[in-house]
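To whoever picks this up:

The nightly regression suite flagged FLYWCH-type domain-containing protein as changed. Nothing in the input moved, so I suspect the structure step. Input below, exactly as stored in the fixture:
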Amino acid sequence: MIKYRIERHQTESISWKCGEYGCPGRLNSLKDYTKPDLKTSHSHGPDPERLAVEKVVVDMRKRCGRQLPYAAFQASSQVVTDPQIAAAIPSFESLRSTLYRHKGNKNEPSTPTSLRNLCIPDKYGKLCTGENFLQIQSS
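Regenerated output under the current build:
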C-alpha cells in the first residue's frame, strides 16, 4: 500500500501526491474519492513495514489525548506483534517533542491575550518553600 496526500482540490476532482519524499507519483480522483487514475508512476514500491510504523505513531498521538506521552508510547509499542515493525518504531526520545506537542497541556491555563486577562492561579503564586511568590495580584 502506498500513502498519498492531497495536492490540490479542484471543482470536479482531487489531485493526490505520493507521500514519499521525492517520488513523482501522482493520482487523480473524482471529488467523491471514486475512479482513481494513476497519472505518474512511482519511483519506489509499496513499503508495508513503514506504513505499519506510521500507524503505530498515529495511534500514539491519539493516545496522548488520554494518557501521558510515555504511557502512550509504551501502550502503542506493546500492541505491535511483528518484531520487524517493533524494531523500526522510533525511540521515545525521538518522538518525545511530537507526542508532547500533540498532547498539549490541557491542565494549564490558556495564554492571556491582554494584561487584563492575566490572572496567575494560586498554585503558581507560591515558592517551593510555601512563601508567596506574588506580593500583590490585582483582579
